[in-house]
Specification:
Layout: E1 7-13, H1 18-29, E2 36-42, H2 48-55, E3 62-66, H3 73-83, E4 88-91, E5 97-98, H4 102-112, E6 116-127, E7 134-135, H5 141-147, E8 160-162, H6 163-168, H7 181-190, E9 194-207, H8 212-215, H9 217-234, H10 241-251, H11 261-281, H12 288-308, H13 313-318, H14 327-338
Helix pairs in contact: 1-2, 10-11, 11-12, 12-14
Length: 341
């Protein structure tokens, strides 16, 4: 009688390069932790070569499945969740590489931290772009949850999570999103469990010029605005149309260029309003959330110093947020003060 595996590794594939697919497959099949099933969902069923590559491994842990037609990545994630048999589910990208101890270390952590329902790891960038850079995200739940309004502090293909939580609360990936389905997923999970990251690089993430983040920037920006709307509604934050525009386009967007003092003041005002709402409503941990809002204000002050030559000394002196000193910004503000700016 076949026993239920402890982990289901879930991997959608779509027009994957054969050499990349083989590397991804072998990195999972050679894991030090052995008690898993490897559920591989082909979202490009016309690519019969991919099926041949997968089944050539003849490993009984592999479960190969095909979509009848292309569903997209979020819908494929959701189907994989339904197909999974194990209590722990681990995501895997079709062109990346998992380090040999990845599953072992994630299973060990979740086994000893029952309060944590979703766990990521550090990762190394490799490939055509941004090669060889190691990334370690925050480890603790309070910092991770506090960041979700602004960014994702968990790298999606590294996650392992508990199936009973997504089942009990009907949590699924938002199929209307091209890119933000992962952050939305973490946000929904955070309502019911703690989130964490291992402070160790256990994954190699391939960067290339055809990545979703580089092909769909306008759509991703729209998704960010929709996510902000949902977040604010969930947590009782009421922004005016103008405040929402400032938050979406300047406070939360790293590529913005602040060239006028009035815009920097508007950014400070909306960040202060959101921080105050949390201090009153307590929807995110404090002081972590207010500290993050303060860091984003500092980032935008640096942005304004570079692109608008704006001296933010007076603005920072007036804010109630816990702003910490920034040597570069202090230097620029001092230089602008000398020039009378």
């Amino acid at each position: 009688m076949k026993t239920t595996p402890k982990v289901s590794v879930l991997m959608p594939i779509y027009k994957t390069r054969p050499e990349h697919l083989k590397a991804a497959l072998e990195s999972i099949l050679s894991q030090t932790f052995k008690d898993f099933e490897f559920v591989i969902l082909n979202d490009s069923p016309e690519e019969t070569t991919l099926k041949d590559i997968v089944l050539a491994y003849e490993d009984p842990r592999i479960r190969y499945v095909e979509n009848k037609q292309n569903l997209g990545v979020a819908a494929s994630y959701n189907r994989l969740i339904e197909l999974a048999q194990a209590p722990l589910l681990a995501m895997m990208n079709h062109d990346d590489i998992a380090f040999p101890h990845r599953l072992e270390k994630q299973v060990a952590f979740l086994s000893s931290h029952q309060e944590t329902g979703l766990l990521g790891t550090g990762y190394k960038k490799f490939g055509e772009l941004n090669r060889f850079k190691n990334v370690l995200n925050p480890q603790n739940d309070k910092t991770i949850r506090s960041s979700l309004l602004f960014k994702s502090s968990i790298h999606h293909p590294t996650i392992m999570f508990r199936k009973n939580i997504v089942t009990a609360h009907n949590i699924r990936y938002n199929e209307n999103y091209v890119s933000l389905n992962d952050r939305d997923f973490y946000y929904e999970m955070s309502k019911h469990t703690k989130l964490a990251n291992l402070n160790e690089v256990l994954y190699k993430y391939r960067f290339h010029k055809d990545m979703v983040s580089k092909r769909h920037r306008a759509k991703i920006f729209n998704e960010q605005c929709l996510f902000h709307d949902k977040y604010f509604k969930d947590n009782g934050i009421e922004l005016t149309i103008d405040e929402k525009f400032v938050f979406d386009n300047y406070a939360a967007l790293g590529r913005c260029k602040i060239k006028y003092p009035e815009m920097l003041k508007a950014v400070a005002s909306v960040l202060e309003k959101i921080a105050k709402a949390n201090q009153t409503g307590g929807f995110m941990p404090e002081p972590e959330f207010s500290a993050l809002c303060a860091r984003y204000l500092l980032k935008r002050c640096l942005n304004a110093a570079v692109f608008g030559k704006i001296n933010s000394t007076a603005l920072l002196a007036q804010t109630q947020m816990p702003v910490t000193p920034n040597h570069l910004l202090n230097f620029l503000n001092f230089a602008y003060a000398r020039k009378g700016l």
